[in-house]
Amino acid sequence: MPGGAESSGAWLHPFREMLLKPHSRVQVFEGAENNLPDRDALRAALAIQQLAEGLTADDLLLVLISGGGSALLPAPIPPVTLEEKQTLTKLLAAHGATIQELNTIRKALSQLKGGGLAQAAYPAQVVSLILSDVVGDPVEVIASGPTVASVHSVQDCLHILNRYGLRAALPRSVKTVLARADSDPHGPHTCGHVFNVIIGSNALALAEAQKRAEVLGYRAVVLSTAIQGDVKSVAQFYGLLARVAGACLTSPGAGAPVEEDAQLYELAAELQLPDLQLKEALEAVVGARGPVCLLAGGEPTVHLQGSGKGGRNQELALRVGAELGRWQLGPADVLFLSGGTDGQDGPTEAAGAWISPELTSQAAAEGLDVATFLAHNDSHAFFCRFQGGAHLLHTGLTGTNVMDAHLLFLQLR
Asked: Rounded to whole angstroms, how far apart are CA atoms 90 and 157?
């Protein structure tokens, strides 16, 4: 669902241009720069809404949905303005709201999200092909579910707003829309004329990465496709995992120290990762006869405290580096990498970064204090300066977003 300036062609990539035949019927709409809804995206959304409302029972609407769809299809319910919706979304994100919470609010304030696009297209048949950028692949959350009836209520929205202390700061227009929805006698609509199918996800991406790692000679195991929670806790988990897995790799018979092993499982329980294969992964490390690659994916949350520049992948890598720098890992070489599958981590040109346990000491030798950069959420500035940017991951924009990939490599020296 692209949005923005209209032209004759397909959606134009910032660094690539698709050439079309003259007089093409394809229209291009660019918008939502830096994944934020804007006036261009609003104009696109209204054009899409008009097209959908003109369909009949003899028509088929094919919808392609991917990450960024929420920003690309903004059509606030009047009297809410685009600027008011933008401000509320930014406030929620800055307070650490999850993508599920953000989309719950977006749907409640949108004409097209939460099944609104499907409702506009009725009675036409609707087929949605979906690239999932949300943990667990819930179709009602991805791009705020334009072709999936919303299951959330006004009370869900108020609960989220209360959680982050934002209810009192709501503009009158938002309160009006929420109150109107709460008293709607028709209730939620259904989408029985819609077929939604996931064609790409984090699980599929990690499965392919696992195959590639095995071809390269690694004993590869997928830990989880649902990594989420505060980036600090996630970094602690990976730091402790590296220590426990390193001990298992170094002394297969002895295994990891009992205390560290217990701490790892306790921390994993606190993160509440529904598909975590921790026991299986550690057993694979014990039985490995060569290098090991532990893979995971998801979308941790960064609670902004500073005004630095970065993204959750670079911040996670930097925090894992700080964790690993606190411990002796024995004769095991360790490398951790975190990258966004869309090729862009936050408002930077990097997809992420990779680190080794020597990061903090090597940074100190260059006059860089890791703790200071973390305190300002300035991970990108750190990695740009550290060893001339050699630890930044540059893939270029991939055009596909199925969340993040985390890779932990271990090998005996």
From this structure: 16
- Type of residue numbered 326: R
Structure confidence at residue 14 as a pLDDT band (50, 70, 90):
very low
Beta sheet of 292-298, edge-to-edge order: 219-227, 292-298, 404-412, 332-340, 352-355, 392-393
Q: DSSP per residue over 21-60, as a string?
A: -TT-S-B-----GGG---HHHHHHHHHHHHHHHT--TT-E
CA distances (Å), 321 to each of 75, 309, 312, 363, in order?
Answer: 42, 18, 14, 10
> Is the model's pLDDT at 5 over the cut of 70?
no
3-class secondary-structure state, position 392: strand
Q: What are phi and psi of 262, to 5 degrees?
A: -65, -40
Residue 295 forms beta bridges with which residues? Answer: 222, 407
CB atoms within 10 A of CB 350: 25
Query: What DSSP string runs through 234-268?
Result: HHHHHHHHHHHHHHHHH-TTT-S-HHHHHHHHHHH
Query: What's the rounded mean pLDDT across residues 165-192?
Result: 80
Residues of 270-289 as b/e, b for ≥16 C-beta within 10 angstroms?
Answer: ebebeebbbeebbebbbebe
What is the pTM for the complete model shown?
0.79
Model pLDDT for residues 302-356, shown as the tens digit of each residue: 988 888 999 999 999 999 999 999 887 778 899 999 999 999 999 999 999 999 9
The pLDDT of residue 98 is 85
Q: List b or e across 67-84, with b for residues whose CB sees 16 or more CB atoms inside 10 angstroms.
A: bbbbbbbbbbbeebebeb
Tens digits of per-residue pLDDT, 191-212?
A: 889 999 999 999 999 999 999 9
Write the single-letter amino acid at 285: V
- DSSP collapsed to 3 states, 277-296: CHHHHHHHHHCCCCCEEEEE
Q: Residue-wise over 135-150: b if at least 16 C-beta within 10 A, else e?
A: bbbebbbbbbbbbbbb
Contact status, residue 48 vs residue 69, Cβ threshold 8 Å:
no
